[in-house]
Design goal:
The chain is of the alpha/beta class and 290 residues long. It folds into two domains: 3-213, 3-Layer(aba) Sandwich (Rossmann fold); 220-289. Helices cover 32% and strands 30% of the residues. It has helices at residues 42-49, 71-74, 92-103, 108-118, 131-144, 161-177, 189-192, 213-219, 227-234, 273-280; strands spanning 3-13, 16-27, 31-35, 57-62, 65-66, 77-80, 149-153, 181-185, 198-203, 206-212, 221-226, 241-245, 248-253, 267-270, 286-289. Strand 4 and strand 5 (65-66) form a beta hairpin. Helix 4 runs antiparallel to helix 5 (131-144). It is globular and about 65 Å long. Residues 4-229 form the ABC transporter domain. It comes from Lacticaseibacillus camelliae DSM 22697 = JCM 13995. Pfam families: ABC_tran.
Length: 290
């Protein structure tokens, strides 16, 4: 099975160290979420994979071979981003043809289906499209290329709620019918939570979380109740954050002692991926006075 490996990938822009030794592996046939704040380096990392940028140090390997200036590797990798890389005067159908010539094949049947689903006229010129429909045209190309690794950098930029829903459903459908690896970098975490199966969090220039979504959400707990009772029940358990309000306390943790009976007056609830991401990218162990 194919895989992309990141080994101590570093990228500096002058004195600004954006990536500080990224290590992770993207396996074949997975739907990954790449999460991180604005400026965390998600786009930089994807551009390095696609050779739009080169690492200052470290390397990215596809099946053990560097992707840098490697045409065979790049033919197996695709990056959809906000960058304007298409000839503006070309019609959408011409872009489909151009993509086929570059990558060797193209799923015309799926492209026609997607164009109809999104209400995109393939005869239109790319430069005449709105921001949202330019995004749609790029998404159609991304879903129809024959690449094994497809990176989607903020893929729903400019899309309204209806078109975002269409995209997520069509992505799920094409993944089910023709599995390959998709990597979604998005700030709309609540929208991709039920789509991705594994998440990476990029924070401070390194990967701070690398875990299956199911395992992660199974551990996340929000514990609320009188301060003394919450502390007694947690019994020294490590918390991500605590919020105090009067005599009440809300604690966010990945290590709740679920084997212990929950005392009266204390409630234990789950955390969705969005809340968990927010807590994991804060300074751990802090106490906020609400």
């Amino acid at each position: 099975m194919s895989k992309l490996e990141f080994k101590q990938v570093t990228r500096n822009f002058g004195a600004n160290k954006v990536l500080r030794g990224v290590n992770m592996t993207w396996e074949a046939g997975q739907l990954y979420g790449l999460l991180g704040r604005n400026g965390a380096g998600k786009s930089t990392l994807m551009k390095i994979v696609n050779n739009r940028l080169f690492p200052t140090a470290g390397k990215v390997l596809l099946d053990g071979k560097s992707v840098t200036e490697n045409a065979d590797a790049q033919n197996r990798i695709f990056l959809m981003s906000a960058a304007m890389l298409y000839p503006g005067d070309s019609r959408i159908e011409q872009l489909f043809t151009l993509t086929r010539e570059m990558y060797g094949s193209f799923d015309d049947e799926l492209a026609a289906h997607l164009a109809k689903a999104f209400g995109l006229d393939p005869h239109q010129r790319f430069r005449k499209l709105s921001t949202g429909y330019r995004t749609i045209a790029k998404l159609i190309i991304a879903l129809c290329v024959p690449c094994e690794f497809v990176m989607l950098d903020e893929p729903v930029l400019g899309l309204d709620a209806n078109n975002r829903e269409i995209f997520y459903q069509e992505l799920a459908n094409t993944f089910a019918s023709k599995p390959r690896t998709f990597i979604i970098a998005s700030h709309l975490i609540e929208e991709i939570e039920n789509l991705v199966t594994h998440v990476f969090v990029l924070d401070g220039g390194t990967i701070t979380l690398d875990e299956d979504v199911a395992d992660l959400t199974a551990k996340g707990r929000v514990v609320t109740g009188p301060t003394a009772l919450v502390h007694e029940w947690l019994g020294g358990t490590c918390t991500l954050r605590e919020v105090a309000l009067g005599g009440m306390l809300t604690a966010y943790t990945l290590d709740a002692p679920l084997e212990k009976p929950v005392p009266a007056g204390v409630t234990v609830g789950g955390m969705d991926l969005q809340q968990m991401y927010l807590e994991l990218t804060r300074n751990g162990g802090e106490v906020d006075e609400a």
